[in-house]
Amino acid sequence: MKIRLASPLTIDSIVDGPGLRTVIWAQGCNHKCKGCHNPSTHDFSGGFKVDVKDIIDEIKKLKLQRGITLSGGEPFEQPDPLIKICKEAKKLGLDIWAYSGYTFEQLIDTKNPRYFKWKSLLENIDTLVDGKFIESKKSLLLKFRGSSNQRIIDVQKSLKLKKAVLHLEYIENMDIAK
Q: Is the pLDDT of residue 174 over 60?
């Protein structure tokens, strides 16, 4: 199984979630948010394909990382390979963050034809930063988010309750969109 990446893995990120993290940059995004800091990741035919096994092998070599982060592009456009990667990362005791332009509510909408794949990916994610980047709500003071409408969600609690539960310890400005 292959995944299309926008760039090689970032091994030592300190801005894509708490602690030292490895970031997987998925290629392809339909959101095309104005002011996106990764516009080169939008084209679904851009980037390059990598065997999922190769990514898992890289993750197995990690020593100091707290977790992995799925970013991009839009990770939820490639759920199958990311589910496989996340399951292996979980076995290694790594926590998993994901950034998505979709909201949690969109991802768990049972009427969506991609619901089952998206839910399977969510089941392997600990924290979701959801919502499109909105340039007018951009702030460099926000921790782990680009714009104040984006939420930092405890995915496992949210799946149980079937509603978004915020990770309050990561949100310093409580003026985000409800």
A: no
Classify 120 as helix, strand or coil: helix
Contact 59, 85 (CB under 8 A): yes
Distance, CA of 27 to CA of 6 (rounded, Å): 5
Is the CB of residue 82 less than 8 Å from the CB of residue 121? yes
Convert the pLDDT of each residue in 23-81 to its tens digit.
Answer: 999 999 999 888 888 888 899 999 999 999 999 999 999 999 999 999 999 999 999 99
To the nearest 5 percent, what fractions of the chain are helix, strand and coil?
30, 25, 45
Q: Which CATH superfamily is domain 2-170 in?
A: Aldolase class I (3.20.20.70)
Q: What letter does residue 81 receive in the DSSP assignment?
A: H
